[in-house]
Recover the amino acids of this structure.
């Protein structure tokens, strides 16, 4: 395969990854706290002598859209939504992880857990246990039972946003964390997915057309090479 074919293959590989990311975004239109992703393309230039430079594309890097999504009122005592930056911290078998999905329920032991059984962590990094009584949440994350404060929900954000890595679903891993001091919490609310269906469908069509153009070029190159081989072999 000639240089043009290899260059097109790198582009096709990146477009395929982008299509997978867009499809995953669309699949999570209704997932509470989901954050849409995009693919970041990089270009590598190499001098090609008399033939000029060669440009190779790389579409491996993913970027997470952290824009605020809308809220859905549920009225649930343990449904929490974050207004502003930051994430809840939950304890998973792989260690502490971040999430914007704020649907929690008390376990048999009274520990607040999400639907996957991951415990919500307080500001000190300890699983949060709720006592019996009327539970109320203040905007700063302070939880009270019958008017008596007993814990504060921790809200965190990565010190370097570039270290934020999507692990799957609504969970993220990150490097060093710092408190999300400017954020606030609302009780009885859940944050929606920040995926815009119109934008994602339009992007899917655009990526599909770009992929088809690249595939057409590869098909023509294959036919040309076959013709050359057949001509030489006569």
């Amino acid at each position: 395969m000639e240089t043009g074919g290899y260059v097109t293959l790198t582009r096709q590989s990146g477009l395929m990854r982008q299509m997978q990311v867009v499809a995953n975004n669309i699949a999570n239109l209704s997932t509470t706290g989901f954050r849409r992703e995009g693919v970041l393309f990089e270009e590598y230039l190499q001098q090609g002598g008399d033939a000029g430079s060669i440009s190779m594309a790389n579409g491996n890097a993913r970027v997470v859209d952290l824009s605020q999504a809308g809220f859905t009122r549920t009225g649930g005592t343990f449904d929490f939504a974050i207004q502003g930056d930051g994430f809840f911290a939950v304890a998973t078998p792989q260690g502490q992880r971040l999430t914007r999905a704020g649907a929690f329920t008390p376990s048999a032991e009274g520990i607040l857990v999400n639907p996957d059984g991951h415990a919500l962590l307080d500001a000190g990094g300890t699983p949060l246990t709720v006592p019996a009584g009327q539970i109320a949440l203040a905007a700063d994350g302070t939880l009270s039972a019958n008017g008596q404060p007993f814990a504060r929900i921790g809200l965190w954000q990565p010190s370097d946003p570039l270290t934020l890595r999507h692990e799957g679903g609504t969970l993220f891993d990150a490097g060093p964390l710092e408190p999300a001091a400017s954020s606030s919490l609302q009780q009885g609310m859940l944050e929606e997915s920040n995926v815009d269906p119109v934008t994602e469908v339009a992007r899917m069509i655009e990526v599909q057309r770009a992929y088809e153009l690249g595939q057409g070029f590869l098909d023509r190159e294959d036919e040309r090479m076959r013709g050359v081989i057949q001509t030489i072999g006569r």
Q: What stands out?
A: Residues 71-191 form one domain.
